[in-house]
Design a protein that fits this description.
With about 150 residues, this protein is an alpha+beta fold. The protein contains four helices and seven strands. Strands 1-7-6-5-4-3-2 form a seven-stranded antiparallel sheet. The protein is globular and about 45 Å long.
């Protein structure tokens, strides 16, 4: 069964500065090692659909998602339609700036086809999730470096 995953980083910048970066979903490929493209279909808000392309090494696959939470300077989340996972960024003000939390939640598990594809093409759930968590930490580190410039 897939696990919920979480990574956190503290950024020396106000939440509105961090928000400008994480809410611009087109920029996701700059930060995520798995995301090749994330194209919102219209202005980003609750209900906006995106078309995405992801990779793991030489393997590339498309997905679609829908923004399910959009609270400026606080949180953005999107549900991947293909596997039912919910990816989110939550911003918490701190004394030194902002704590940014990235999560992958699987409230109802993932789709059968997604589990089979991960097993067949990506080495199984455990190594795939280990790589996802590593990628989440890399993503947060790149966001931090961008915002703190």
């Amino acid at each position: 069964m897939p696990k919920n995953l979480e990574a956190t980083i503290d950024i020396a910048a106000a939440p509105d500065q961090v928000w400008k970066v994480v809410s611009d979903l087109k920029r996701m490929p700059e930060f995520s090692p798995q995301c090749i493209r994330m194209q919102p279909l219209g202005a980003v808000k609750t209900g906006t659909w995106t078309i995405n392309f992801n990779r793991d090494g030489r393997k590339v696959w498309p997905t679609t998602s829908r923004v399910v939470r959009f609270e400026p300077n606080t949180a953005i989340a999107f549900r991947v339609n293909d596997n039912r996972t919910i990816w989110s960024f939550t911003l918490e003000p701190t004394e030194g700036g902002t704590r940014l939390i990235q999560r992958r939640d699987c409230p109802n598990g993932t789709s059968w086809i997604s589990r089979k594809a991960i097993e067949a093409a990506l080495g199984g759930e455990e190594p795939f999730e280990k790589a996802l968590l590593q990628g989440m930490n890399e993503t947060l580190g790149k966001i931090k470096a961008t915002v703190e410039r």
